[in-house]
Specification:
- This protein has an eight-stranded mixed beta sheet with strand order 5-4-3-2-1-10-11-12, with helices on both faces. Strands 6-7-9-8 form a four-stranded antiparallel beta sheet.
- The radius of gyration is 17 Å and the shape is globular.
- The chain has 226 residues and is an alpha/beta fold.
- α1 packs parallel to α8.
- It is an enzyme of class 3 (hydrolase).
- Belongs to the archaeal SPP-like hydrolase family.
- This is Phosphoglycolate phosphatase.
- Catalyzes the dephosphorylation of 2-phosphoglycolate.
- One of its GO terms (cellular component) is cytosol.
């Protein structure tokens, strides 16, 4: 089977460990003859800038599937889930000293600095807010709706592009990439990925971070999968 598009995470996947963009990964992505969708837990403005700089603009899944846009100047599709996340944050902030990040730009989730007991907060949240979850992407802590993830974002993006989710190769490294890799037709985990992501991947690169993406794309090309 030849896949028709790529959907790929940013941090830890097309960056180095210090979050600097891997120029080799960006250059490799630009050589592809199929669309590349950026899928990130970060905000839309960051994702747009990253997509422009990488040179794959501009189909974007931002905020872990909460915000989707299929063109740089198009109106984004924003999920209406921020209110339950705000309520969960207000409840937890009475128990923990929390610091919001990107709060001005966030439309569908709350993102926090990792400076509190996440496991304890997760237990408390599960008792009082069963439809909201806390995930740790290694770069930040996200309070998000359980109904929204990069997998649901890929479903919507595929619809907008006139494709099936099984037409995509998904590449990622962290827990927020799980549903995206499960939804895609072919799943790639880079070498630095969490073990549970490697367990479900069709291909795991030996190299890590952006170098892992370069390796994976070379494998896909040499195998005539893209």
């Amino acid at each position: 089977m030849t896949f028709k598009a790529i959907v790929i995470d940013i941090d830890g996947t097309i960056t180095h460990r210090d979050r600097k963009l891997s120029l080799n990964a960006a250059a490799k992505l630009r050589t592809l003859d199929i669309p590349v969708v950026i899928a990130t837990g970060n905000v839309l403005c960051y994702a747009k800038a990253a997509a422009k700089l990488v040179g794959v603009c501009c189909n974007i899944i931002a905020e872990n599937g909460g915000v989707i846009v299929d063109g740089f100047d198009n109106e984004p599709i924003v999920s209406d889930v921020i209110h339950e996340c705000e309520e969960a944050y207000e409840f937890l902030s009475s128990e923990f000293n929390m610091e919001k990040l990107d709060s001005v730009h966030r439309k569908t989730e709350i993102v926090l600095r990792n400076n509190f007991d996440v496991e304890e907060a997760r237990v408390i949240l599960g008792t009082h807010f069963p439809n909201v979850e806390i995930i740790d992407t290694h770069f930040a802590i996200h309070i998000k709706s359980k109904t929204i993830n990069k997998g649901t974002g890929l479903l919507k993006m595929a619809e907008l592009m006139g494709l099936e989710t099984t037409d995509f190769v998904a590449i990622g490294d962290s827990i927020n990439d799980l549903e995206m890799l499960q939804e895609a037709g072919f799943a790639v985990a880079v070498g630095n990925a969490d073990d549970f992501l490697k367990d479900i991947a069709d291909y795991v690169s030996e190299a890590s971070y952006g170098d892992g993406t370069v390796e994976a794309l070379a494998y896909l090309q040499s195998s005539n999968l893209i």
